[in-house]
Amino acid sequence: MNVKIVNLNKWYGDVHALKNINITVKTGMFTSLLGPSGCGKTTLLKILAGLESPDQGEIYFDDQCIFSKERNINVPPQKRQIGMVFQEFALWPHMNVFENIAFPLKAKKMHDGIEKRVEAILKNVRLEGMSKRSPDQLSGGQQQRVAFARAVIANPKIVLFDEPLSALDAVLRDEMRFEISQMVKQMELTGIYVTHDQMEAMSMSDQIVVMNKGKILQVGTPEEIYNRPANKMVLDFVGKSNWFRCGTKAIRPEKIDLYPTGPYKKVSGVVQSVAYLGEKYEVTVHIEAEGDWLIYHNRRVQLGDQMDLYFKHSEVIHFSD
Ligand SMILES: Nc1ncnc2c1ncn2[C@@H]1O[C@H](COP(=O)(O)OP(=O)(O)OP(=O)(O)O)[C@@H](O)[C@H]1O
Ligand SMILES: [Mg+2]
Question: Residue of the nearest CA to atom 1 in ligand 1?
Fold first, then answer.
């Protein structure tokens, strides 16, 4: 289902939580809302789900207007065909896996073929044979898969995620990122995923919406956001970068070379710090004219070493102010 959000505004008293939000999400797309704490991500998800009402604006699911302040339209949550997965898995502890997953069907009085549907979805989320277990007999990742199964059992068109992986450890989180985006694609759902983790947004999404303080800073593919950030805040928020002293130009560390090939610009500096990351060394070099820059090296260098750095002019990212 296509989702279109038009000129949305939301206030909580004096707090302008969402400022003129415009987003289009195409059917089958996986979109992340990325931004720091308090920027309005959860508020926007709740508004899509119908759990909060905006003060201005309109929302369309395909051609149907599901919310319009001006026209007094507000389709209730249960009629929006939305599934939700939250940070706290929020499985009901007194129900087993089967009962947890079947709950939305029972709530909607869809009693026909419940067993078959739960069985099919259990297969999808790779939890076959676990229907009788209680949530406390499952690992964190398995619990999160149950939460996902419960969110999609009633055939929603859109599934909303609010930081669903933040309670998991790093290894499991990596695995689940891939699984979640795969499952969403397989089931041909439209996914909207809230996170403040840029790696998560970059690795999972077709489209990223970068937000700060209730505003959208940029909408684009992960590559566009990374390579052509719309402003300084996006650049600083996504990936690492080195600023030139003038304050309007920056360069990513991986674009800086240790040897010249072709027409390059050269800067020189002194090694300030070295950190070993396994596949590479992260080195800070103090450059007299520019300040401290981060670069990557494939071998250990010593503090105080003199280094020459080379970069192509075309790799420099420019900002107008
Ligand atoms: N019910 C509420 N009443 C008053 N203010 C609220 C309410 N809910 C959210 N806010 C405020 O609205 C702003 C956006 O909150 P929101 O929960 O959407 O942020 P978020 O991006 O999800 O942050 P986090 O990453 O910490 O979850 C914040 O300033 C928050 O304090
Ligand atoms: Mg939140």
Answer: 12
